[in-house]
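Page 37, continued from 36.
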């Protein structure tokens, strides 16, 4: 069985059994099975999208190779993490843009292009809240503007025993993010050069003059496109754009 991002499966089974056991009601001293409550197809589809981060095999969430102009090779995957791996400002911005939503879990992997010019940490933020609240994430989240806000920029994920073992936050050159088309997932990419050179300063990010924001560093710019590519894998194909 492929490895999956799921937790508490045994507890879920036990809980499901307990719920099933109580699905008998007593009326006038006799027992009868409770009638199942019909679930709307739209609700089933929404629940399926929300569960993708747990039900998709890891190899589908973070493929070993990704082609986007260049080929990117996955160096390693981090264990599913709590939302404390994100800057506080990131969560605050999510709550501001889409009231009623919150971060649920963060999945991360680090890639390098085939020439090992750049490293890129790809993060998938699982968003909680009802469908109408999550829809605001897609409509209100502003990835281009947020990319110039260093206080929102997530940390990188260094991968032990790989070329990215020393990948550090001071190498971050640029970052951006993209929401899936129903707002259930926010995908971000934090990029930096693989040779260890220092990244952009906060002032450079705010003014758009950082090292990666000019034409002489196309590899880092290209890596930023991974956010849109990965967000598409979590998008609800049935939702109109």
């Amino acid at each position: 069985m492929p490895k999956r991002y799921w937790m508490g499966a045994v507890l879920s089974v036990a809980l499901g059994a307990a719920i099933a056991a109580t699905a008998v009601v007593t009326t006038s001293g006799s027992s009868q099975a409770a009638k199942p409550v019909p679930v709307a197809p739209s609700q089933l589809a929404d629940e399926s999208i929300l569960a993708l981060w747990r039900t998709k095999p890891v190899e589908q969430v973070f493929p070993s190779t990704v082609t986007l102009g260049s080929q990117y090779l996955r160096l390693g995957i981090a264990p599913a993490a709590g939302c404390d791996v994100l800057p506080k400002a990131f969560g605050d911005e999510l709550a501001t843009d889409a009231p009623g939503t919150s971060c649920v879990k963060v999945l991360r992997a680090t890639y390098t292009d085939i020439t090992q010019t750049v490293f890129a940490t790809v993060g998938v933020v699982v968003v909680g809240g009802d469908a109408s609240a999550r829809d605001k994430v897609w409509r209100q989240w502003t990835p281009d503007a947020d990319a110039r806000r260093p206080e929102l920029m997530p940390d990188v994920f260094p991968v032990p025993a790989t070329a990215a073992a020393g990948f550090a936050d001071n190498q971050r050159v640029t970052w951006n993010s993209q929401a899936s088309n129903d707002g259930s997932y926010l995908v971000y990419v934090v990029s930096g050069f693989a040779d260890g050179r220092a990244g952009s300063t906060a002032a450079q990010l705010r003014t758009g003059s950082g090292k990666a924001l000019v034409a002489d560093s196309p590899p880092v710019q290209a890596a930023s496109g991974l956010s849109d590519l990965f967000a598409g894998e979590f998008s609800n194909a049935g939702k109109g754009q």
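DSSP finds ten helices and eight strands in the chain. Flag for discussion at group meeting. Residues 64-233 form one domain.
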